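Handout for the seminar on molecular recognition.
Each group receives one record of this type.
Step one: identify the two inputs.
Step two: read the structure output and locate the region that could contact zinc ion.
Step three: write two sentences on what you found, then compare them with the reference statements printed after the record.
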Amino acid sequence: MFVVWKGNKVIVVLIVLVVAQLALVGFAIARNLPAKNSALIDFTVVIDAGHGGIDGGVVGADGVKESDLNLDYANCLGQIFERAGFNVVYTRKTSNGLYGLPTKGFKQRDMQERKRIIDDAKPNIMLSVHMNKFAAAYRSGPQVFYQQGSDDGAALAQSLQRVFNDVTGVQREALAGDYFVCRETSCPSVIVECGFLSNPEECAALQTPEHRNKICQDVFNGVMLYLYGG
Ligand SMILES: [Zn+2]
């Protein structure tokens, strides 16, 4: 009845996946395993918090730095995957950049270090977390990008965007582009722009734990849709 009423395959798949996620957590508890750092699934997710250190990324209308929000979202997202039994590797766990000294060429060194961490992890997927900006303040909502020419990246990005679209009611396409961390890694990789800091309302919302948790759960559901959905 519920299925017929919804008439939405995505919703049904997500309900099944959330139940599966809860079952995994229950399994960990039943075996007296700590929910964290106890990979139950042979599947590694690299979570890349964009920017950091002297590279703050986009600055919000109220002065909030994208790099700080990215780190907060990356940690939240990683915890969701860890609790579900996935192996998670983070490119950065502090507010510092990955470039060493803040001297000439720091951005290039930062990106190379991210590539090294991703390569070493031999991940199944890579999710790079960012916040967006646009000249006009009205634009809002999550947007997913992938490396042009990567079919796997496109499939992962489309699954994430599909969940976002389903939740927000705004229909957007996952978009192709050229991004170092996606181009230079061999696994399916995406850039997740969680929302627009250039939109004052969304900028404020993005800084609340409720909004962060929701976006991160949507990303997790998108990955589940990519892995198990139709
Ligand atoms: Zn960014």
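Reference statements: The chain has one domain: 2-228. Confidence is low (pLDDT under 50) at residues 1-7, 28-36.
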